[in-house]
Write a structure and sequence with these properties.
6 helices; 14-stranded antiparallel sheet; two-stranded antiparallel ribbon; 18 strands; single chain
Length: about 325
């Protein structure tokens, strides 16, 4: 049976370009320099761009393997992000990412913008979202679910006390070159949270030794905020309600393209339960130290019902100083 000449002509016009396109994509898929992609990702993390060019971030990225996934995707396994020590006394801390998948925006990449969607297994939970970086801005849109904070040892570089709990919520943030153009919001919730372990110490200002903190059952801790007109995020909610303590807070975060350089200024109010205060001799001794040391006593509110701390700084240089006489955060119960 003879084929219709018109169908033959259409088949040629459709078939040849389709064959060429499929062949091109398969060739690109098989020959794409994935090792260079791996090196590029490592460079982006270890030497990110700043206003003064590229600077060392203080982090080291390890990637066990990077393989293709469909046409524009990559599959990463055995990923480890390490924060290098800043002093001789510190030790390296890390977070392991057993599996991550990213799909790269090739058209955006041709225009000089790094754009990707991603999902990853992190610390027993998941993180998924989108990332975009250009010369003018950095945008992150992420959803977190059941991320176990005790599996992220990097946190110990920023907080002197160990933190346990499961973190979930959303972050939608655009950090612009011009501070006023920064925008976004966050809504995070930490459940079954505890702070302290009876060994680590909380330091105030320039104190050499600090105060040993017994484990505190924080319960559920909620943090929410939105960036205002000046490009600074004001926290609309910082509240925890647990068996051992009630937490209230207020403050702001000034974000930087280099996230670890973002500055915080937060007033934190901690009202401990009587059961925790008198739970064992060690907690009693801890509160006794607060009364004996004039610098620590300044953290107590005038009525003695709570402790207030002013948390300020950036990165690993976050400090806590007594702030007992400052007005209580809005919404304190």
């Amino acid at each position: 049976m003879a084929m219709n000449p018109k169908l033959v002509k259409v088949a040629k016009w459709v078939g040849y370009p389709s064959f060429f396109l499929v062949s091109f994509l398969l060739c690109a898929y098989w020959t794409f320099p994935y090792e260079r992609v791996k090196d590029f990702l490592i460079q982006q993390v270890e030497y990110p761009k700043s206003g003064r060019g590229r600077e060392a971030s203080g982090f080291q990225l390890e990637i066990g393997s990077l393989e293709p996934s469909w046409i524009t995707g990559v599959e990463l396994t055995g990923v480890r992000l390490v924060k290098m020590p800043e002093t001789a006394e510190e030790r390296a801390t890390d977070v392991a990412i057993p599996r991550a998948h990213a799909r790269i925006g090739l058209l955006a990449l041709l225009g000089g913008t790094v754009s990707a969607t991603f999902d990853a297994d992190v610390a027993g939970g998941t993180i998924e979202g989108a990332y975009e970086e250009s010369t003018e801005r950095l945008h992150v849109d992420a959803a977190l679910e059941a991320v176990r904070l005790n599996r992220i040892s990097i946190l110990r570089s920023y907080f002197s006390l160990p933190i346990k709990g499961q973190l979930g919520g959303t972050v939608d943030l655009t950090i612009a070159e011009e501070q006023a153009d920064t925008e976004g919001s966050l809504d995070l919730r930490m459940t079954d949270a505890t702070v302290g372990d009876g060994q680590a110490k909380l330091k105030f200002g320039d104190m050499r030794d600090g105060v040993t903190v017994e484990e505190v059952a924080v319960g559920t801790l909620a943090i929410a905020g939105e960036v205002g007109d000046e490009g600074v995020m004001e926290l609309s909610r910082l509240q925890g309600r647990g068996d051992d303590v009630q937490i209230d807070g207020a403050g702001s975060i000034r974000f930087n393209r280099r996230i670890t350089s973002s500055r915080i200024d937060v007033l934190l109010r901690l009202a401990f339960s009587e059961a925790y205060r008198e739970g064992n001799p060690r907690t009693g001794a801890m509160f006794g130290i607060l009364d004996l040391d004039p610098r620590l006593r300044a953290a107590k509110t005038p009525d003695g019902s709570a402790i207030q701390l002013r948390i300020t700084g950036a990165g690993s240089r976050i400090n806590a100083r007594p702030a007992g006489r400052e007005p209580a955060p809005p919404g304190t119960q």
